[in-house]
Every structure is written in structure tokens, then in C-alpha cells.
Amino acid sequence: MKKIIIPLLLCISLSLSGCAATVASQPLSTAQSGQVEYFFTRAHQHPEQALESQINSAKSSLDIAIYSLTKKDIVESIVSAKKRGISVRIITDRTEAKTKAEASELLLLKKADIPIKEDTHSGLMHMKVSIIDKSVVTTGSYNYTQNASTDNDEVLVVIHDAKIASDWANEFEQMWEDTKNYTEIK
């Protein structure tokens, strides 16, 4: 576990310290339990492409908890996953869901019969997480937006570890089943 956590913390520290532009995208760890990769926007490592690749590789399930979802290519990858028969669920932030940019993308996802929930609690739904087939997790500062893909200092971390993915899937499931703090967007 330490072999995964320490590189993950290093990756997050680098992204927050502004050193992102000098670090190459590569696996941080190839420990027995899995592999961690990272992709920095400002280093031109295209986190959006890495995320789309993970979404496109889904074979059974795709759970997404995301603060802001406005990048059309990512939305198209999610819709494509649903069309391939993948079970897709999304949780987003209620304030972001009402913005013009996100509302239009959520409408496309709803038209594809993808269930979407938003938070109803007092805080933000500020996670940036995709869980693919309960075996891969993506996380980091990266929102699924154009600015996060091209302008911002952002990082997408991809964790290939079934145990970690299972823990994150359990957390997502608790959020999904929590009808007090999350409600379905109709």
C-alpha cells in the first residue's frame, strides 16, 4: 500500500508546487499491487486523452463523480461507453449542473439514458473521479473541462489497482445510495 500512496502523494505535491511542467508522464510505481500514471496539462501530457482512453477501455462499469463536466470529447466517450452496454452512473455538483455549459452536456448524457445525481448537501461535490470496471481509478485536480485540458495547472492520476478501485467504488456506491445528500437529476 505504501508503494502506491507515496508516489501518489509525490505526484500531487509536484502538481501543487508548480513543478508539473518539468515532470514527464510515466508510471510512478510498478509495485505488485498495481501501477500509477500521471498526466499534467501544462506539460502538454493531455490528461483528457488519458481519461478518454480509460473510459473507452471500460468493459462493464463506469462510475464518475465530477465537479465540472463540460468537455465535449469526454462526454462523447461516456455516451459511447453507454452505447457499448457499459453501466454508467454520474454524480456532479448541483451548482455546476445548473451552468449553461454543464447543463447542455448533462442533457446529452440524460438522452443516452445515463443516470445522473447531484449533491444536495451544503458543501460542494468537489471530487474528480472515474472508476472503470472496479479495477482502475482516475483522480487528481483535473475537472472534465476544456480549460482543465489546455490552460490550467492540472493533473490526472490513473491508478491501476483493483483493491484501491474497489475501495473507491464502495465510496461511490455509498454516495449513490445516499438519498439525503444526493438526488437524481430528472
Low-confidence stretches: 5-33
Shape: globular
- What is the domain total for the residues? 1
Named at the architecture level, the CATH assignment is 2-Layer Sandwich
Q: Look at the structure and give the mean pLDDT.
A: 87
Largest sheet: 8 strands, mixed
Series of H and E elements: HEHEHEHHEEEHEHE
CATH-derived topology = Endonuclease, Chain A
N/C terminus separation: 40 Å
Can you put this structure into words, describing what you see?
By secondary structure, this protein is an alpha+beta fold. It has a single domain, classed as Endonuclease, Chain A (2-Layer Sandwich). The chain is built from seven helices and eight strands; from the N terminus they run H-E-H-E-H-E-H-H-E-E-E-H-E-H-E. Strands 1-7-6-5-2-3-4-8 form an eight-stranded mixed β-sheet, sandwiched between helices. It is globular, with a radius of gyration of 16 Å. Residues 5-33 have low confidence and may be disordered.
